[in-house]
Design a protein that fits this description.
821 residues, alpha/beta, 29 helices, 22 strands, globular
Length: 821
């Protein structure tokens, strides 16, 4: 919605014809003699050696998986094995053209890409830097193990043994695998060599690599991010969202001078013509060549090109050209790398979907055999040297396997000895210091109209006589969020904020209003309506060293970003054994008045996923302090906000919302009203009907309710609630979420166990009915109200004479109806 780019009807209504750039197909024409002159014999021999290492490593893994042994070395491997034999030229060719500081993000079939990137980095890094990397990993323990158990040979040196051992130990989920055995076959990575997380979810690396490219651009890094996936991923919506996000025009039209230009992201598709058993061309896709899809993204067609993936030098040439283009700010780019998977999708694949004739035709193009023959023909190697190289690789792979199969060299993860090991890896519980740095701003904060207006407001929501002030006169929940976010944005250059309508609009609900006057476009921008890409890029930006604050507008839209929230944002901290941090804050508003698809409380859904911290403040004071803590956390946080609370003023702290920066520890429930007869634990906006019920019960019946605001769902400290129940003997939990499966149900179950000896009655959960959320006129009949709370307290916990006031229907019938479905 930038006014600097007017939408002129005369421009868009003029007749014409759209044209598209040509997409080159197998354009590589360089001779081996030319490559020999450019690269040298040693580099060309290394290309063959690297392909042989990839092939033999996966041959070994396939044998172990299928038969339980390789070269008489037995090992029982229970995990998956998605092999890429036949695709070695694509992996090695790409790595040949990439620098160590370029980062690849792979797929479930990325052992080869991982190894190729590592081998390439080893060949390029200086000896001192390489030694430092190996000595710093696991405090040098892995390096010492490799040096002691894997012999160095003329074909495989110490660093290469380190790479192979670390990967194989990770695949076998050993304690000294690269990722502590927490990643395994489909999630292995080693960032010092530029191999970032492989991903078991098809196409999931596209958005993460795009976010990594975003961070590289903002940090001024002269390097690129590569999203490596297969042709089957072009059927996945998040892949298109990522390519569109990477292609946004604003990088060239709206970002400030010095930051303009496209993202340095290369979408590298290993096109082996099959997605498991479904054939992409002619069956499951509409394109005839994968590279065609680039034309749908931008006027440059993403500089798309189809490349011969059986020729490592053709792949290297294409990647080298695309890399140069990306570093010039002309990204993103797309490569369709046509290759062929000689084996099955997995070791259980019977290959019933392709003919033996087709397989034989591609086996004749085996990249290793054909490249070796070319080197022999050109006189670069003799056949006996090729044979010796192959034998040396086989011996080296066997030596690595023998070491990893040895429990003294590669011990298993000791869950029996440390039962909560994985639990400790779920969160770092680390925070950054209070940001105090200087960042480049468009204007000083004090010049913002919003900030000047807020400065005139009372910090407290209560007037001199105790009257409640309006949102126009006092700092609100919305303002509290704004102040915490503003502090982090103006003092931490690493933090960026984006989502739908986040800039000129000020966020759909005004939280960001005024920020566009202060924060440059590249650190506060509008994203496309692409929830999957919004979250995935936030994760990639964070993994690459940035900090991300993103918004989905409505919590109901979490479904559009399910994998990105539940499998990506939630898991990389633990799957990395704590070596990666994911400082992402995902804001989700819980709607009101919009009915079934825009007003759902999905806190339980998010809290159910291990690896996510979940906050849901209900007051301006808590909103500001918890947002500051969320933005300071090194762990991923989902921050729920009720739309009904944005105009709420602070009435619990006499001094109101502090103007200065402060944090509230996550996980601590807060007693909002003390009492002696019933403990009422509330989640989100249900705090306010609970307080209204408490006031009425005290006046009408003399009953005293202690009202506790959960504030945080994950983590959650049960001690204050248990202490309250010890005093009252009764517990009622109130939530606006559908009662069935709500997080209040989880809290009730746990508190029943923890405080069982103090309970005088069974805990009760009051939630919304297990129905769709109705529209605005019927909301009060759906969400828990003060009368509902009063009815439960006076019927089940402290029975008193109670008339059927205000026309409440028979409570038993109503309760049965609410929970019938």
């Amino acid at each position: 919605m930038p006014k600097s780019i007017p939408v002129k009807p005369e421009a868009f209504r003029a007749p014409g014809v759209l044209s598209f750039p040509d997409v080159p197909l197998h354009a590589y024409q360089r001779t081996l003699a030319e490559e020999r002159k450019a690269l040298g014999d040693a580099a060309l021999k290394n290309v063959l050696r690297h392909m042989m290492i990839l092939r033999e490593f996966e041959t070994m893994l396939g044998a172990i998986k299928a038969r339980g042994s390789y070269q008489d070395i037995a090992y029982a491997y229970k995990g998956p094995a998605h092999l890429s034999m036949g695709q070695e030229a694509a992996a090695v060719g790409a790595a040949l053209a990439l620098a160590p500081e370029d980062h690849i993000f792979g797929s479930h079939r990325s052992h080869g890409e991982f190894l190729a990137k590592g081998l390439s980095a080893i060949s390029r890094l200086g000896a001192a830097e390489l030694r430092s990397i190996m000595e710093s990993h696991q405090d040098g323990r892995l390096l010492r193990t490799v040096a002691a158990h894997v012999p160095v040979s003329p074909v495989l040196g110490l660093a290469e043994n380190f790479l192979l051992f670390g990967l194989l130990a990770e695949i076998f989920m050993k304690a000294n695998g690269f990722n502590g055995g927490m990643g395994g076959s489909m999630h292995a990575f080693f960032p010092p060599f530029g191999a970032y997380p492989n991903n078991a979810i098809v196409g999931a690396s596209a958005g993460i690599a795009t976010g990594a490219g975003l961070r590289k651009k903002l940090a001024g890094s002269r390097s690129i991010a590569v999203a490596m996936s297969g042709d089957g991923s072009t059927g996945c919506g998040p892949v298109y969202e990522a390519m569109n996000f990477a292609s946004m025009a604003q990088y060239r039209t709206l970002w400030t001078e010095g930051r303009r230009g496209g993202l340095p992201v290369l979408f590298f598709f290993n096109n082996n013509f099959y997605a498991m058993g479904g054939q992409t061309i002619g069956e499951t896709m509409g394109w005839d060549r994968l590279s065609r899809i680039g034309a749908g993204m931008n006027a440059d067609a993403m500089h798309a090109e189809t490349v011969d993936g059986t020729n490592p030098l053709a792949v290297a040439d294409a990647v080298r050209r695309k890399r140069a283009l990306l570093l010039e700010g002309r990204g993103p780019a797309l490569l369709d790398v046509e290759c062929y998977r000689l084996g099955g999708h997995s070791t259980t694949d019977a290959n019933v979907y392709r003919t033996k004739e087709e397989q034989a035709a591609w086996e004749a193009l085996d990249p290793i055999a054909t490249f070796a023959a070319r080197l022999v023909t050109e006189g670069i190697m003799a056949q006996h040297e090729v044979d010796a190289m192959k034998a040396g690789v086989e011996a080296g792979i066997a030596a690595v396997l023998k070491a990893v199969a040895n429990p003294d060299a590669a011990p298993a993860v000791d869950i029996a000895g440390d039962p909560v090991l994985i639990g400790r890896l779920m969160f770092s519980h680390a925070e950054i210091p209070v940001p105090s740095g200087e960042t480049r701003l468009l204007a000083a904060p004090e010049t913002s109209a919003r900030i000047r207006q807020d400065a005139k407001k009372s910090r407290s929501g209560l007037g001199p006589s105790g009257e409640r002030l309006s949102a126009m006169r006092a700092i609100t929940y919305r303002d509290g969020l704004f102040e915490a976010i503003l502090h982090h944005l103006i003092h931490d250059e690493r933090l960026i904020a984006y989502g739908e309508e986040c800039r000129e609009w000020g966020g759909a609900f005004g939280v960001y209003r005024g920020l566009s006057d202060i924060i440059p476009y590249e650190r506060l921008f509008n994203a496309p309506i692409s929830e999957a890409a919004i979250v995935a890029t936030a994760v990639g930006h964070a993994l690459e060293g940035g900090r991300s604050l993103v918004e989905l507008m409505y919590g109901d839209f979490l479904g559009r970003a399910g994998d990105e929230v539940f499998n990506q944002m939630a898991k990389w901290q633990s799957m990395s054994a704590g070596s990666l941090k994911v400082p992402v804050v995902l804001r989700c508003s819980v709607g009101s008045k919009y009915g079934a698809q825009h007003s759902q409380d999905w806190t339980a859904l998010v809290a159910h996923i291990p690896g996510l911290k979940v906050l849901y403040p209900a007051t301006p004071f808590d909103a500001k302090g918890l947002m500051a803590s969320a933005l300071s956390s090194e762990d991923p946080v989902v921050f729920f906000e009720s739309q009904r609370l944005y105009d709420t003023v602070e009435t619990f702290h006499p001094e109101g919302v502090p103007q200065d920066y402060y944090r509230i520890p996550m996980g601590e429930p807060d007693i909002k009203r003390t009492g002696r007869d019933v403990t009422v634990l509330t989640i989100g906006p249900s705090l306010y009907p609970a307080l209204a019920a408490a006031q009425e019960l005290e006046q009408s019946s003399g009953l005293s309710l202690e009202v506790i605001d959960a504030r945080s769902l994950v983590p959650f400290n049960y001690d204050p609630v248990i202490a309250s129940v010890e005093k009252t003997g009764h517990l009622l939990l109130v939530t606006e979420a559908s009662e069935r499966g709500s997080f209040a149900m989880t809290l009730a179950s746990n508190l029943t166990r923890f405080a069982f000896g103090h309970l005088k009655s069974a805990p009760r959960v009051l939630g919304s009915p297990n129905w769709i959320v109705p529209g605005a006129d019927m909301e009060t009949t759906y969400f828990p109200q003060a009368d509902d709370i009063i009815q439960i307290v006076t019927s089940d916990m402290h029975p008193v004479r109670h008339s059927n006031r205000r026309g409440i229907r028979n409570w038993a019938e109503r309760l049965m109806a609410r929970n019938a479905l």
